[in-house]
């Protein structure tokens, strides 16, 4: 068995089975057995199923919220909207998006059709434990594939609830299968399994490299949503305060544990001091503590290893000479228990480790630029390319400048994320796209007939 720890209290809240290769074998066989029938269902039948999955997920909303709060310590009000309600919306979005796909088209005398790719091995992370399941496993099932999911062992309870939801919704046996356990055991067995046709991972770049390496032995299709070090570019005529505050809210969501978080804040050099003051004020406005206290606005990081990692990064920033504006590696006052990190803001340049490496905690770095060319040179000077943001007085100017930023999803003047539009990145941020029809199409193959 594996234990699940509450990061607020550091106490065990649950135990789950530590799966093994034989569990993956059983799940993969069940998925393979179910595939011929499920892959032949009509689009209308799958739309109806996803409407029911959304309904059943909404009915379990309180259970989902309680599970995520106990596993990750995020503030309850945040979880209700950003995780639970979002998961319901994801399933509804998949139902709507199925009608957006061109399933058959005529090319001369040939009919080109879209067909389900097969059995999908899905590996999801802990920072968004329910949404990652609904987006990843959901898109594969919507495509007509069957799924074996290795949910995260850090925050696994949501994946068990989804398995119950799938059963309650009437999803046929074998279409969704769950094997809990650790990556080296269950994950590697899943990626190498001969009955698995596609592997989809959301995780670290290191994990993505390993999945690509292992999956290549059997030439499986690999979909990867990996890390990021995204830039929030604030041009000289932008509303600086709004851009700083919105950017920090994005960077600190999930306690900074978000792959697309806007952790590099690029500001005109002439406005650096002003930007620093806005950032200090915003970071120091966060309240850490009990996730059920309505005053709490920021939770802990997920586990003890993550706590050490984030605090080590903060120490490295100080050691490299970055200007520490607020926060630091010490425990927040009055919170000696729990995996809490002080909201931390650095000011420096793009050569710092804290500006180049993904920290996965509530830490940002403000970086000045000299002109627009300099801003985009700094923004693109990264191994990653997942997300970004551009702020300008004229939103059309910001949209036009977006072509200069090598990133997969770019927000303009704080625009909301559109779940019907694709999510995914360039460079080390991964391969493939999620959300809407784009996410479903990753699990489809083309067939030319005639």
Can you describe this structure?
The protein has helices at 21-38, 43-59, 61-72, 76-97, 131-143, 157-169, 183-192, 205-215, 240-251, 272-283, 304-319, 353-356, 372-380, 395-401, 436-441; strands at residues 2-5, 12-16, 104-107, 110-116, 119-123, 146-150, 176-178, 198-202, 221-225, 231-234, 264-268, 323-328, 342-347, 363-369, 384-385, 387-391, 409-412, 426-427, 430-431, 444-449. By secondary structure, the chain is of the alpha/beta class. It has a 7-stranded mixed beta sheet, sandwiched between helices. Strands 7-6-5-8-9-19 form a 6-stranded mixed beta sheet, sandwiched between helices. It has a 3-stranded antiparallel beta sheet with strand order 3-4-20, with no helix packed on it. Strand 10, helix 9 and strand 11 form a beta-alpha-beta unit. Helix 2 packs antiparallel against helix 4 (76-97), helix 2 packs across helix 6 and helix 9 crosses helix 10. The longest helix has 22 residues, at 76-97. The N and C termini lie far apart (53 Å). The mean pLDDT is 97.
Strand order of the largest sheet: 12-13-14-11-10-16-17
Give a quick account of the main beta sheet: strands, pairing sense, barrel closure: 7 strands, mixed
Helix- and strand-based class? alpha/beta
Uncertain stretches of 5 or more adjacent residues: none
- How much helical structure, as a percent, in the residues? 40-55%
Task: Give the radius of gyration.
Answer: 22 Å
Shape: globular
Distance N to C terminus: 53 Å
Return the average pLDDT rounded to an integer. Answer: 97
Give the DSSP E fraction (strand runs of 2 or more residues). 15-25%
Helical run tally: 15
């Amino acid at each position: 068995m594996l234990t699940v720890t509450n990061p607020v209290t550091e106490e065990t809240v649950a135990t789950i089975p530590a799966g093994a290769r034989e569990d993956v074998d059983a799940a993969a066989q069940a998925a393979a057995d179910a595939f011929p029938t499920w892959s032949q269902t009509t689009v209308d039948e799958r739309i109806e199923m996803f409407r029911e999955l959304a309904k059943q997920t909404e009915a379990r909303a309180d259970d989902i919220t309680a599970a995520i709060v106990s596993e990750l310590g995020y503030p309850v009000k945040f979880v209700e909207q950003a995780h639970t309600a979002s998961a319901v919306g994801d399933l509804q979005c998949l139902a709507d998006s199925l009608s957006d796909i061109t399933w058959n088209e005529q090319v001369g005398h040939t009919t080109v059709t879209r067909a389900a790719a097969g059995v999908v091995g899905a590996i999801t992370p802990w920072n968004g434990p329910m949404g990652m399941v609904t987006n990843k496993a959901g898109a594969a099932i919507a495509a007509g594939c069957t799924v074996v999911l290795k949910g995260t062992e850090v925050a696994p309870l949501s994946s068990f609830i989804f398995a119950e939801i799938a059963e309650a919704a009437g999803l046929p046996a074998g279409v969704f299968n769950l094997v809990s356990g650790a990556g080296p055991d269950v994950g590697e067995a899943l990626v190498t399994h001969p009955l698995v046709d596609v592997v989809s991972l959301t995780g670290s770049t290191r994990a993505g490299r390993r999945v690509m390496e292992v999956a290549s032995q059997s030439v499986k299709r690999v979909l990867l949503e990996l890390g990021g070090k995204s830039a929030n570019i604030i041009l000289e005529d932008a509303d600086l305060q709004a851009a700083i505050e919105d950017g920090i809210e994005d960077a600190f969501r999930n306690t900074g544990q978000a792959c697309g978080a806007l952790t590099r804040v690029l500001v005109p050099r002439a406005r650096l001091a002003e930007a620093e003051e806005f950032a200090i004020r915003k970071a120091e406005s966060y309240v850490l503590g009990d996730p059920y206290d309505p005053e709490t606005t920021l939770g802990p990081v997920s586990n003890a290893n993550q706590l050490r990692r984030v605090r080590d990064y903060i120490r490295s920033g100080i050691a490299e000479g970055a200007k520490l504006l607020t926060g630091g590696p010490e425990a927040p006052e009055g919170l000696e228990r729990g995996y809490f990190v002080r909201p931390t803001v650095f000011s420096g340049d793009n050569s710092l480790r804290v500006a180049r490496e993904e920290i996965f905690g509530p830490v940002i770095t403000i970086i000045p630029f000299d002109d627009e060319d300099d801003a985009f040179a700094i923004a693109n000077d990264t191994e990653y390319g997942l997300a970004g943001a551009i702020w300008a007085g004229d939103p059309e100017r910001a949209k036009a400048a977006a072509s200069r930023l090598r990133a997969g999803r770019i927000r303009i003047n704080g625009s909301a994320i559109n779940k019907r539009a694709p999510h995914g990145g360039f460079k080390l941020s991964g391969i493939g796209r999620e959300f809407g029809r784009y996410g479903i199409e990753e699990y489809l193959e083309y067939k030319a007939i005639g």
